Amino acid sequence: MNLEESDKFAQKQAQNEQKKKFVLMSIIGCGILIALLIVMIIYIQYQDALQLKIYIDGTQISFSDKFLKQENGTNYVSIRELSDLLGYTYTKGEYKKYNENADSCYIKNNLEIVAMTAEKSTLTKYIEVIEGAPELTLEGPYGIEMTVEAQNGASNTFVLEKPVKQINGELYLPFEYVIDVYNMTIDTSVKNRIRMYTLPTLFQSAKQLAAKLEYGTISGVYENIRAIPYGLVVVGDNGIFGVIDLKGQEILSVKYEHLSFLQNTEEFFMRAENTVGLLDKTGSTIIKPMDYDNMSILDEIEELYLVEKNRKYGVVNRDGEVVIHVDYDRIGLKNIDDFKISTLRNDYLLFDKCIVAELDGKLGLYDIKGKELLKPVYEGFGYLSDVSGEDSVLLIPKEVGFNGLVINFDGRYAIYDVDREIIAAPAVYNKIYSVTKAGATTYYADFNGEQLLLKGVLEALAAEEAASRQEDVDNDTEEPEENNPEENDIGSEEDNGQVEGEDDTTVVVE
Fold first, then answer.
1. How many whole angstroms separate alpha carbon 107 and alpha carbon 95?
2. Which H/E stretch holds residue 50?
3. Within a 10 A sphere around the Cβ of 205, how many other Cβ atoms?
4. 125 - beta bridge partners?
5. Buried b vs exposed e over 64-93: b needs ≥16 C-beta within 10 Å?
6. Pick from 101, 108, 103: which is nearest to 83 by CA?
7. pTM for this one?
């Protein structure tokens, strides 16, 4: 090898070394860039994970800084904003009260109305099917049509452990009640991610599950579709029904002629072989099957149930015990919507403790334990006014005198004191009504054409009663001239206007 060839070889070696260094530096550079890219991706993902994101049926939504609130460890969601996102109409004020109370609201879609008030221990849902409803999509494995069993106006009361809150003038619902109010589920298993699934989406998934498990059908009854957010699916075969959970496990075997889901208690009314009963969501029996044609909930808080047999109605409790025998043409008032009522929890209970029963067109009254308070001899409860500016009155509020029920006996009106269980104002009034001006309601009684302030009337009656009691006390302290036990007993009955076997209510009215 000569000197020239040696130089060329050295140059080649140097060039190769440079190429190796370049390749190595390129690899290192690419590695650094990739590392930086990974770090950036991780950082972006980390920052993204720190941001709260909300999805409805898989679609991310935008929301305001007022959408979510937290107080004392409880998460709340804005009722107005969530309703807007889900297509509900939000209305301020109490349902059917026509006021603008900022602490109350009601929301509605094409099937339901939900009424809520801040700090109240209950909320109420009403079935209200509007024209064009229902809108749930039922295509897929089953060619079924959705139906709504309940009549418009039928209501259910939900008992709340945590009430609705009014925060900075807006109403907020505790997160755990979103499932009840909006018939949807919420998945918060991933931090800073809230995934909401509406009833139509859940219904489609339930249909696919039922088809996969080869059930013949899935219930298209709206009340039963509302069981799906609670993890329950009503399935059927050849006209009989049962319940499975979302894992496909059987909860109620397919053997019932009819099942109806009670959303507020998460239970099922069942009907089979001319009997009805109540089952819980685990399949346990609450009220064993009884010989009735139908059963529905009367009051959730008092755990009372309306039962029907041969078009007659009665009431049983959660133990299946009879509270009111199935002898009546109706339980509850049929004209309840004619009155403005603020102390009515549902259409059946007056002052949360009295049940109206109708027989042959006449009305009577029971307490929630089944004690008869008024025999069914009254033409009606409440005064219906047809005079402009006068309001019909059913219940008298305590601030007017006592918790009172207006009753009609032979065309005259009296007032029954539901706390003392007596007729405190006799049936001598032509009408009992109220007038509301500038937001203040005043109650009146008409006696032979004279308008009387009802508060003054009740105060006068209370004073007379107190004076009468004092007179009785004074008479009892006087020693009688003759001590004849038999005569004294008879005199006592006459003084009370009552003889053995007669009902004190009827005597007082007469």
1. 9
2. helix 3-50
3. 13
4. 114, 156
5. eeebbbeeeeeebbbbbbbbebbebebbeb
6. 108
7. 0.75
